[in-house]
Design a protein that fits this description.
Elements: H1 2-40, H2 45-81, H3 84-90, H4 96-134, H5 142-146, E1 151-154, E2 157-165, E3 169-178, E4 184-197, E5 200-212, E6 215-227, H6 247-259, H7 265-292, H8 301-327, H9 333-359
Antiparallel strand pairs: 1-2, 2-3, 3-4, 4-5, 5-6
């Protein structure tokens, strides 16, 4: 009988999860299109359709955890309104009869969202940027994420690489060497820089200036191999939004950017959020179950949705604040990503323990 109850609660929850998900997804996309319809009126409908297909994929990930949360609150309210929670209590079913099916279903959905993000949303997000810029001429913050990196720092050297990449070589290069007291020790200007091996690079068309207390000395050479203490991947910095990179690419870019003296907080935040954000939906769903099971609560669907939306708004606000603190380097990016999940787990656990303390293990 308990297994039948588990399946019934799971089916009720999944039905609401699907309904809520498609409802909020449709509302969001319709509102987004209505807000931008003038900008799209002079463009082929195929371009608009392709843009919104990719937006649909990206938005599915963004709204997935909220749907898990709202569905949990609505499902428990429906069980209460139908008198099924009373039946569970009469049969001495434990609290896990409601918690476990919702938790398992939400966890499976969260794992699916992680995979969906990794293999689908990363490409769809990049496609949204490409279509928006190339077909609708809307640049937004494109330059912030897609402008090539030209300045790098490795140890006491600062590199200014104006054009090129490691595979093809760099053109019009400047390498500054700083002294321990942060003065300019020497400067290398080269027409071209190409990788040799290890941390050595071949410079062509070189002008080498050395600075000391007596002044500056200039040496020129047609070509030479220099030890620059920079491996081949030192300048392999990929342009693009962090959310458009796979997990492997994020790990690689975090290492490369740290070595080059570039900020890594956005990438670290994106890496941890890749897992923390979907799992936050699981914790929020369990918290919604606990709130919906409180004694004296009536089974009104409107109340359930208001409670779910309140949790969602608080969650969204905490994520925005955490992101701002992380990007401002006031809070570790990993902590900013996982803090909402941890708070929700603690809150959901506290409600569980409170209910267990009132009714004992055997009661709902």
């Amino acid at each position: 009988m308990t297994r039948t109850a588990y399946r019934y609660v799971a089916a009720t929850y999944l039905a609401y999860a699907a309904a809520v998900f498609f409802a909020v997804l449709a509302i969001f996309l319709i509102a987004d299109y209505g807000d931008r319809v003038k900008a799209y009126s002079d463009h082929p409908w195929r371009d608009v359709a392709e843009l919104y297909w990719n937006k649909l994929l990206v938005t599915s990930l963004q709204l997935g955890p909220a749907a898990l949360l709202l569905a949990a609150s609505a499902a428990v309210s429906t069980l209460r309104k139908r008198g099924e929670l009373t039946a569970f209590r009469a049969l001495a079913f434990p609290l896990r009869t409601v918690y476990l099916p919702v938790g398992i279903c939400a966890l499976v959905a969260a794992v699916g969202l992680v995979a969906f993000d990794e293999y689908v949303v990363t490409g769809a997000s990049a496609k949204v940027d490409e279509i928006t810029v190339s077909r609708f001429n809307s640049w937004g913050d494109w330059n912030r994420w897609f402008r090539p990196h030209q300045w790098f720092r490795r140890g006491n050297r600062v590199f200014y690489l104006r054009a090129g990449d490691t595979a093809r070589g760099f053109d019009d290069v400047t390498v500054l060497t700083l002294t321990p007291d942060f003065r300019l020790g020497d400067r290398l200007d080269a027409r071209r820089m190409e990788y040799v091996d290890g941390t050595r690079w071949r410079l062509s068309g070189v002008a080498h200036r050395r600075f000391d207390a007596e002044g500056a000395a200039l040496e020129t050479s047609a070509s030479g191999v220099y030890e620059l203490e920079a491996p081949a991947n030192a300048f392999a910095i990929r342009a693009g939004r962090p959310e458009q990179m796979s997990v492997a690419e994020l790990v690689e870019q975090i290492s490369a950017r740290r070595g080059a003296g570039l900020a890594v907080e956005p990438l670290v935040l994106s890496l941890h959020s890749r897992f923390a954000y979907p799992l936050t939906g699981v914790a929020a769903a369990l918290l919604a179950v606990g709130i919906a099971l409180r004694p004296g609560r009536r089974g009104h669907l409107t109340v359930a949705l208001v409670e779910g939306l309140t949790i969602a708004v608080v969650l969204w606000g905490s994520m925005v604040v955490g992101k701002a603190l992380a990007l401002g380097q006031h809070l570790p990016a990993s902590a900013a990503a996982w803090a909402p999940f941890a708070v929700l787990v603690i809150a959901a656990g506290a409600l569980w323990l409170r209910r267990e303390g009132r009714l004992g293990w055997s009661g709902i």
